[in-house]
Specification:
The complex is a heterodimer of chains A (343) and B (287). Chain A is an alpha+beta fold and 343 residues long. Chain A has helices spanning 11-21, 95-108, 115-122, 171-179, 190-202, 214-218, 226-232, 239-243, 289-308, 318-322, 329-338; strands at 4-7, 23-30, 33-39, 64-71, 78-80, 88-93, 124-129, 155-159, 163-168, 184-186, 250-256, 261-268. Chain B has two domains: 14-108, Translation factors (Elongation Factor Tu (Ef-tu), domain 3, Beta Barrel), CATH 2.40.30; 121-246, Rossmann fold (3-Layer(aba) Sandwich), CATH 3.40.50. A seven-stranded mixed β-sheet of chain B has the order 10-9-8-7-11-12-15, with helices on both faces. Chain B has a six-stranded antiparallel β-sheet with strand order 4-3-6-1-2-5. Classes of the chains: A alpha+beta (343), B alpha/beta (287). At the A-B interface, strand 4, helix 2, helix 3, strand 11 and strand 12 of A face strand 4, helix 3 and strand 13 of B.
Chain lengths: 343, 287
């Protein structure tokens, strides 16, 4: 479908109209912390943010999610799965986070279909917004991404002055544009302006490397002393996995409210915790931080390629920003390119 | 765009009832279980070596190997799980009674390559509760419908003490009576009333020294036993594709999503639990 335009001063009206029919999820600033929140109107939506502290992954894979309610009264098990979610519009996510959703699709839409995730995924229209100001920690271009393209989103908005250029990337995006057609104009040369925006933003990246040779090197680095050195400063706090848009590990627990009724839920878990792999009998295949740190970086930069054919680091820089000891995946990528794999 | 119209939620377990409990050892019980929905019972057709997620609703869920073999699951219309009391959930499971409700989903994972084993002699090497997953294949092979398709069956099994031997009725009664089947049992230390072999499983294996000629070895037990058994088999001349093992790592979802059972890029729940030694050699030694 042909590109469209959306006047900047029309966005709030559009989102208000969206919020009347769909669940609107958009970035808002709470005491300067930008978060994606479900909103009943466009009031408070921020447009000039660089990236949210937490990724919008919560809206596909919630931090805590009910799997089913149960009753075991009278020695009979009754299981009630939760109701499907409503149609939603996720507005304002960045291209790196769109790529992270593509990465999570590969996990949840495989030999077994994760219906909790897929229900939310199918009912969400994703409106991404190109970045114009990368943070110093941003490195999407180093891992194959781009701040101004978002394959996998339904619409991509790029700020080209007074208007957003609207790229319609899917049928769902097309349906959205048709439904709210009064807000969208026809493109008139804005596509050319986008090329200038692209060039300007690309020049602003501080961190520029590439993944070239990294996977091949990691294929033979399992026993390398580098991991021991790297793990020494890790606190095992798991912050990196908590803010990561592609981390998908979860625990499953039962909450029993009165002995007969309760719910089974899943919640985010982390490979950085010792209990994550520790078995009831005591055996733990990753007993120390060395094995756990190694597993995390190999998972992001090697195992994901082996298993899913894409990387599980999208260059959002969140783990680099939030790690209390500056254990930084960009530095790891750079280090891996440098170290002698045969040590 | 991923879609999931009308697909089944694989994380919802199916209610089932315990119909019989067999005390195997002081800390292992075998639970015979029947699904409450006869359709689900009819369609539950695990292959030898597969696992299931076993829930006590309100307490939790764990991955447990299915210890009974398919012919018997069909004939007797029930499924067996042998469960060692080790943690919070299994302690609750051990307190369940006949008639108690549980919930099960599965079967999951890879199965023993019983097609590839046809025409070959089979050597089973088990330790402790590690006999539970092997038993599904032993019973499959020894079932009268399948027995003629396989050669000699040798079973080497050990536990800490006589009391800790699982499936005594199989080891000392049922299996030795089967055609071309030998059972070799050992316990770790001497004890009164035991006139059988004494010693660890890996050393008993080397003593018996079964030839690798046209034979497949299948092993399961504590990680340390598996490690020495694999070394022993290699010394005896077994090739990597003649050695099959089944692994256990901590699992939650059983369907390759929750992340924790990875060995390198493989997940034990969907790519295992059954691996040949040749397959394991391609993975990092992290299990």
């Amino acid at each position: 479908m042909a590109n469209k335009t959306l006047k900047k001063d029309q966005v709030v009206s559009l989102l208000n109209k969206v919020a009347a029919t769909y669940q609107l999820i958009a970035p808002v600033a709470d005491d300067s912390v930008v978060m994606f929140k479900p909103l009943s109107s466009a009031e408070g939506v921020v447009f000039d943010y660089v990236n949210s502290v937490l990724p919008p992954k919560d809206y596909f894979f919630p931090q805590t999610e009910q799997m089913f309610k149960f009753s075991t009264r009278n020695n009979q098990i009754v299981i009630n799965p939760p109701d499907p979610v409503k149609e939603r519009v996720l507005f304002g996510i960045r291209p790196c986070d769109v790529q992270s959703i593509i990465a999570m699709d590969k996990v949840f839409d495989r030999e077994y279909k994760d219906t909790y995730y897929l229900d939310k995924r199918a009912k969400t229209t994703i409106i991404a917004v190109s970045c114009t100001e990368p943070l110093p920690t941003c490195f999407c271009t180093s891992v194959g991404g781009s701040p101004t393209s978002a394959p996998g989103a339904d619409l991509l908005l790029t700020d080209v002055g007074d208007v957003y250029l609207v790229e319609v990337l899917s049928e769902k995006g097309e349906a959205f544009v048709q439904k709210f057609s009064e807000f969208f104009g026809n493109e008139n040369g804005e596509g050319a302006k986008k090329a200038e925006v692209e060039k300007a933003v690309a020049a602003k990246f501080v961190r520029t490397t590439s993944l070239e040779g990294v996977k091949a090197k990691l294929d033979n680095m399992f026993e390398h002393p580098y991991w021991e050195r790297l793990a020494r400063k890790c606190l095992g706090c798991a912050c990196c996995t908590y803010v990561c848009p592609t981390c998908h590990c979860f625990d499953i627990c039962d909450f029993n409210s009165n002995g007969f009724e309760g719910e089974r839920f899943r919640c985010w878990d982390s490979c950085m915790f010792a209990d994550y792999t520790r078995m009831a009998g005591g055996h733990n295949p990753r007993p120390t931080k060395k094995e756990r740190v190694r597993n995390r970086f190999l998972h992001k930069l090697k195992y994901s390629w082996d298993r899913y054919g894409l990387g599980h680091c999208v260059g959002c820089g969140r783990c680099s920003r939030e790690c209390p000891v500056n254990l930084d995946i960009y530095t790891v990528i750079s280090d891996v390119k440098e170290v002698d794999a045969n040590v | 765009m991923p879609m999931c119209d009308n697909c089944q939620n694989p994380l919802i377990p199916h209610p089932a009832t315990i119909t019989k409990i067999i005390d195997e050892t002081p800390d292992v019980k075998t639970f015979q279980v029947v699904f409450d929905d006869p359709e689900i019972q009819k369609n539950f057709r695990p292959k030898p070596g597969q696992v299931a997620q076993f829930s006590v609703i309100g307490v939790g869920e764990a991955t447990i190997s299915i210890t009974s073999a398919l012919p018997r699951i069909i004939k007797e219309n029930m499924v067996e799980f042998s469960i060692k009391k080790v943690g919070r959930l299994t302690t609750v499971i051990h307190e369940l009674e006949v008639g108690s409700k549980v919930a099960i989903r599965g079967p999951y994972g890879t199965h023993f390559p019983y097609e590839m084993m046809k025409g070959k002699d089979l050597l089973f090497i088990g330790g402790g509760i590690g006999l539970a997953p092997l038993r599904s294949l032993i019973d499959f092979v020894l079932d009268e419908e399948n027995r003629d398709q396989y050669g000699k069956v040798d079973i080497i099994y050990g536990a800490r003490s006589k009391a800790d031997l699982c499936f005594k009725y199989d080891l000392f009664d049922r299996w030795p009576k089967c055609k071309d089947t030998n059972v070799y049992v050992t316990i770790d230390r001497e004890e009164p009333g035991w006139d059988g072999h004494v010693g660890f499983v890996p050393s008993y294996l080397e003593e018996l020294n079964p030839s690798p000629e046209n034979r497949v070895a299948i092993t399961c037990g504590p990680p340390i036993m598996i490690k020495f058994v694999l070394q022993g088999l290699e010394k005896m001349g077994y090739k990597d594709d003649q050695v099959i093992t089944t692994l256990e790592l901590k699992m939650k979802c059983g369907i390759g999503k929750c992340g924790r059972c990875n060995i390198g890029y493989k997940y034990v729940c969907v790519d295992g639990p059954v691996f040949s030694l040749a397959q394991l050699r391609e993975l990092p030694p992290e299990f």
